[in-house]
Amino acid sequence: MWATAAKLIIKYVPPEKLVKIFFIAFFVFVVLIGLLFVGPIMVFKHIPLGKTMDEFNYYKDAANEINQETGLSIHWQKIMAIDAVVLNQDFSLSSKEHALGYRDYFVREEQEKVERTCTRTVEVKDNKGNIKEVTEEYDCSYWITVYYERPFDETLQLLVANGVITADQIEDVKRYTIYDVDMYLEKDLDLPDGWMPIAGEFGWPLDGHYRISSGFGTRTDPIQNVLKKHNGIDLPAPTGTPVYAAKDGKVIAAGEMGSAGNAIIIDHGNSVETRYYHLSKIHVKNGKSVSQGELIGEVGSTGKSTGPHLHFEIRVKSNPVDPLHYYR
Fold it and tell me: What is the pTM of this model?
């Protein structure tokens, strides 16, 4: 077949166009190879890949402690970037104490004198021997420690001077600070005590259960103990707690869905859908139209789950978004 195709191409395609087609095909081939192999390598060389949240927290906790001591906001990712090179991304070899060991590379201390004149009252005798009080001035200046954040380039040069990294590794360290890792990590919920969702476009899927045990973003998977993207929020509630449709729509899936357990997906139009995972019971069928607030299932712990809760997702154009954006 290939031989026949080659003969037809040679017969009907002018030689000058054959050369052009060859170079285009070769270019496409190189691009595909780049996407398949170079892409993952570049990600590995640009993003510090901790395996669990603990390994990120070493550096976050160290940065927080430095901030409390000095008032300086050293970005934790810069500290982690150094270990990404020094430890070859094996962050299991690190610890908070290890991360704090880089403090003096980021922080410069100086003793500065605060000039100050004070007054005091003293008793003195005049020429006649009478005692009277006199106010006098005296130097009450004092020294304080002032902290300055070193420019990152200066930090890296100090690391080279002390043999922590080599000069050739400076650019490797910088690569790990190109992308802001914070955007990929599970965000602190920062919800006040007694927080309740504000229903608007979407209603809350559980009545009276507002605590969120796990937010949207990358987290340590509670079963596999590795970092994985969490595409929704987890709402703990007793098994059998009613689950309601968050918005009018049409059920496009209802049944057992692997690690999601018993699950429901509702299409709300305009490329928006909601998902409800780990249900103990399902009360709707595929294809059914539902209204906001309508009973669709019950909380459970089916699929990959560590306890009864509702995993709730909102997706826009197939992309998971943080549901809390719609309830504040």
Answer: 0.50
